[in-house]
Amino acid sequence: MSASKLLHQSMQNLSLVEAKAKPPPPVPPLVPLERPSEPHQLAISYPPRHRHTLYYGFSISKQWLYSSDHLDPPDYDCYFLRGYQYIRWAVKIHFLGVELCFQAKKDGAPPDHVKANGNVLVLSVLPDEEVDNPIRPVQEQVDYLTELLGRKPRWWVGIWPRNDWE
Fold it and tell me: Residue 118, by phi and psi: left (phi above 0), alpha (psi -120 to 50) or beta?
């Protein structure tokens, strides 16, 4: 039998199996963080200036934001906005952001947080420019997110270069 006939026969014997997507891990309902009467200043050191903005925060996945939408039924068209607003409300970090960053070469995001293009969504609590964010979160707010997400925050390099005027 020729190679082309063997290939044709094996192609006919192929079957398509639909893979089930792994459901995102459930996000526990967030209890609003009570700000302590004596909050502690965030223990952080700023990295050297980079040609891209740096963001201090946590890698997250779209699925995590989906599961943060506690409205019933969840609205997958608005997952980003509603999940983000819910987290912001509970943690009370007014300058909380979601930024698109490069995957770090060392100690980067878990594989399920890396997008197809290699970038990572980061729940940012602070940019590297103190002028951009004069109100820093307190240590208790960052600790709350650390406990919720199960990992420590780190500095991430944003994908967009700084503007000429920065």
Answer: left
| Separation between Cα atoms, residue 85 and residue 94, nearest integer Å | 10
Length of the chain: 166
3-state secondary structure of 145: helix
Distance CA 24, CA 82 (A): 16
- Whether the pLDDT of residue 46 is over 80: the answer is yes
pLDDT in tens, 47-68: 888 889 999 999 988 777 766 5
Q: What are phi and psi of 155, to 5 degrees?
A: -85, 135
Q: How do residues 149-164 score in pLDDT, each as one tens digit?
A: 888 999 999 998 887 5
Residues 121 and 100 sit within 8 Å (Cβ to Cβ)? yes
Half-sphere exposure (CA, 13 Å, Cβ side) for 18? 2
Cβ atoms < 10 Å from Cβ of 133: 17
